[in-house]
Task: structure prediction
Amino acid sequence: MANSYPIFVAGRWESSSEPLPILNPWDGSTVGTTYLATDQQIEFAIECAQAAFADYQGWPTYRRADLLGEIRNRICIARDEIARLITLESGKPIRDAYAEVERCGLTFETALEEAKRIGGEVVSLDVAPVGTCHFGITRRFPIGPILAISPFNFPLNLAAHKVAPALAAGNTVVLKPASKTPLTWLKVAELCVQAGLPPGVLSVLPTTTERTEKMVRDDRFRLITFTGSAPVGWRIKTYAGHKPVLLELGGNAGVIVDRDADVGFAVDRIAIGGYAYAGQVCISVQRVFVHQDIFDEFARQFVARVRSLKLGDPLDPQTDLGPMISLEAVQRTSQWIQEAIINGATVLTGGRVLGHNLIEPAVLINASPTSRICSEEAFAPVVLLFPFSDFEDVVAKVNESVYGLQVGIFTRDLRHAFLAFERLHAGGVIVNDSPTFRIDPMPYGGTKESGLGREGPKYAIQEMTELRLLVINQR
Result:
């Protein structure tokens, strides 16, 4: 079959009786065809992950670090092919796809460095008379086979944030990529084999929702790590039983633009943060609260900046905003905008459906806080503007969201910056930049409906290892 991509089952390249065509969101053409893993293939992958773990967990640190470094090098060498594949299957503008490849290299580089720092400590036990002559040593051990479930919007790097720390810690992984964008990691699996990855340490298995649920329930997996929507993530938690679950879920990121903010700088950063990859980013800017003294000027500049964004073919290096992932996503976004208008919102620009899964980047004012476009995760190129007068009140407004992934604040007032840090209920508070800011080594994750635990290689390794204590009586 032309453009056929076999799936990676514990070191073996296989097909199945269930082909999975992958469509280009830009024009609907077929990028390639892969396969849905069957029950038998999934069972084989899990059995091999268990068997491979027995050996791989004992690899010395330098071998794991060398393996990660070789994978990183091969990803960087193949950057052109990988970036193009990301764009073709996800619709992400090619410029952003290249940035994702670079970020993936940093993710693997950070993971290999953190592999060298998985240590422990000496614990003083003679703080009580019974502890005299006793001392304790802690050490972290790999947890075992991990099920990783990754989303469509960063098909390379968000999966890397699961696989690289797992390998760094000495774990084996079964990766279930998003069904719309599985080809990127099937290519990376090929590079992993070339880098010397042993059979069974990694499988890449596109499959059905029902089979994924069955894997989530399987106690042979010692941890589930999932990135995706909040409803699906919390459902996974209920299926997982006693296994730990790492959830990086959605958001509707809020931004505060204080009275003393640099308006031009804030406009530029928020426009990038609100419309990158057509707003299909968990920390995409959705709600912007602007001090009333600068609201009109901010809105004027922001609308002009949004109108300057270039829409079109994501393979064009000049394109800022390409298609959404599917027609269903476009229709949902358009419906939510229309609902907001019926309830009193005004569209300052954008919102029209243009075809090719394109929707104009939209700016709305006067939207009801209870409207779906405001209260839920839009995951779309839509930004809502609200005026405010009191800083403490606006912090409370931002906190009204059920989500708490990252928030942003533009201010020159250090007191306001620290007040926001202390009171905003979110995993990250970004001062003088968009909440979409993320450097891969930093801790990343949310509160409330936005998830559990933290990613970033150092922090994911902590989630993917068990702390064990050794006590020695010296008598």
Remarks:
- The chain has two domains: 7-249+451-471, 253-439.
- The CA atoms of residues 25 and 325 lie 6 Å apart.
